[in-house]
Design a protein that fits this description.
Structural class: alpha+beta
Order of helices and strands: HEEEHEHHEHEEHHH
Distance between the termini: 19 Å
Largest sheet: 7 strands, mixed
Number of domains: 1
CATH class: Alpha Beta
Number of strands: 7
Helix content: 40-55%
Radius of gyration: 18 Å
Number of helices: 8
CATH topology: L-fuculose-1-phosphate Aldolase
Strand order of the largest sheet: 3-2-1-4-7-6-5
Length: 256
Amino acid sequence: MGATALRDVKGTSAEDSRYEERCQLAAAFRWAARLNMHEGIANHFSLSVSEDGTQFLMNPCVRHWTRMRASDLILVDASDPKTLEGPNAPDPTAWGLHGAMHRNLPHARCALHVHPKYGTVIASLKDSNIPPIDQNTMRFYQRLAIDDNYGGLAFEEEAERVCGLMGNKSIMMMGNHGVMVTAPNVAQAFDELYYLERACETLVTAYSTQKELRIAPHEVAARTCEQWQGYPAEFAHSHFSELMGILDEEEPDYRD
């Protein structure tokens, strides 16, 4: 991934040049499960490993996220529908949504789709915007694509519609569904997902008080969002490196 801040991956070999990427994606699954941002064996993460983005790693069907290992991840091609005929084929909705993402959105190198508790609550409201009420919510100020027209499970037609709405945005509140977070690599994508759920938790808690929100002025929210975007990328990589370090101590089998 080219991120010097990420922890060195043990066991990288010439026989598997994607081992590091596999370990990072497996770690993301394990941590999403630890943070209760999973649906058992449902939902899906993917990571492009080819220059054009169409070849990507993702989770196989029916593998629980708490047990995900580097070797479990399957390599699929967004341009090859026969993917669904292969061994350990992905869930058809996973293939539809992530295949469309990697075919159509070059900036979406890593795509994380989940139905997290608080993010899904916000995605279920008539207004799924995140007003700027604290630093975490300001991180996402005017950065979100919002899908107001859920059309059913993300088979290929629905997936193409969602991608069209995503455009050049990197995060989507998928109305009546969940969230999609994309980034150039696993570390940055997971960092965004983590803070998105934190922002939604704060917002849901604030709404529950039934008190008037203290919404920051546009100028303050926009400046804070810009400051977040200008923050050194090493912060996200250091965050994820620490998460991998904890797994190295407590669940090292994710690297198998």
